[in-house]
Structure formats: C-alpha cells, structure tokens
Design a protein that fits this description.
Layout (H helix, E strand, L loop, with lengths): L6 H11 L6 E3 L4 E3 L2 H15 L2 E11 L2 E11 L4 E9 L9 H21 L10 H4 L6 H19 L2 H8 L3 H9 L3 H20 L1
Antiparallel strand pairs: 1-2, 3-4, 4-5
Length: 204
C-alpha cells in the first residue's frame, strides 16, 4: 500500500492518523500536556507503516545576547523529504537546574514545536506552551520566532553579525530587549527590515 503513495500522500496519511495523547501531568498547574516524547512514541509505528524516517537535529543560535535552540524535524522516504524548524529560548537561570538541564529543556520545547508543525498538531492553547503563558491580543511568541528565523537567514546572506545589526539600527543589547518587549510594532518593523535584506540578497 505504501509503495503506491507519493511522499506527500504518505505524510498526509501520518498527519491524519497520528493520535498523540497528553500523558504528562503538571501537578502545580493542574493540567495535562503533550511532550515531544509523546509525539515520537505515537508516530513511530505510523512511520514504519508508511516507510518514512524521522530525524531531529538541534543547534544553538545567538540572537542579541541570548541563545535560542533551533530544532529541525525532518521526515523522508529516502527520495523526498520535508522539514520544519522551531526555536525555543534558553532561560537565563532556572532554580535547581544546571546549564545542561536548561539547554535540554529548551531543546525539548523546540523539538515539540517542530514536531507540532511537521504533523499539524495544535498545542497553542496547551498550558505548558509559551503561547498560553504569555497570551496577548497578538502572539508575541510567534513574532519573536519570525525575528529569530529571519535573523538567521539574513546573517547567512550578510555574513557579518555586526554589519547586520548596523543595517537594522540595533545592537546586541537592543535586539535582546526587543525579543523581551511587548512592542508589537517594533517587532514587525524589524521583521520587515529582515525580509527586505533577504530579498535584496536573493535578487542580487
């Protein structure tokens, strides 16, 4: 059956059939939530069924003065592939956790978001997500994610971090402050600037 399906038909089948339960319980917040591990366990038999291979990759990305973990979820049938990336910020400090645990927590969140995107799982209203914790009329987490993604792409084009900051009229400290702020218009302005830099580089 799987041999007769195209790669994207297989992926659509997996997205449709995937049922990832919220098996984790947060006693402090009194809610159930779904982890990256829950999604991975649920999708393994479906990947085997349709002949697909899923891989996950992490890498640290410096934006301003803060590090984000960039997670990439990639699925392939050996010929074609599709991937989704997501970012999560490392906490500056977290009580009872060392540096490796803080990075591991950011990695888990980033991987979960990437898997959510890959398999079309909507967790935006789950109580363990940043979107739930920091809900406003505008999704600030989404805007920050756009800034981080576009900044990384623009940096590849420009090749010099300080030059890119100068083009944006920012510096490391101001970029960090921007990602922490609730200033939607300022965030959108930077997103437009980054898109312009990327497009100009491509046209050139």
């Amino acid at each position: 059956m799987s041999e007769k399906l195209s790669f994207y038909e297989k992926l659509i089948k997996v997205q449709k059939e995937l049922k990832a339960p919220k098996s984790n319980y947060n006693k402090f917040g009194n809610f159930y939530y779904r982890s990256a591990e829950d999604i991975l366990e649920a999708v393994k038999p479906l990947n085997a069924k349709y002949g697909l291979v899923l891989t996950l990759k992490d890498e640290p990305v410096l934006v301003g003065e803060r590090y984000y973990i960039k997670a990439t979820a990639r699925i392939t049938d050996g010929d074609e592939s599709h991937e989704v990336t997501a970012y999560a910020r490392e906490s500056q400090a977290k009580k009872g956790m060392d540096d490796s645990q803080i990075t591991g927590t950011a990695s888990s969140y980033a991987r979960k978001y990437a898997l959510n995107g890959l398999f079309l799982i909507d967790d935006t209203k789950d109580a363990d997500t940043d979107e739930f914790q920091n809900q406003t009329s505008v999704n600030l987490s989404e805007l920050n994610n756009q800034i981080i993604t576009l900044f990384a792409k623009a940096l590849e084009k420009v090749g010099d971090r300080n030059k890119l900051y100068k083009t944006l009229g920012l510096n490391k400290t101001k970029m960090t402050e921007l990602t922490k702020s609730d200033d939607v218009e300022a965030k959108r302005k930077v997103i437009e600037q980054l898109e312009g830099i990327i497009n100009d580089s491509q046209e050139g």
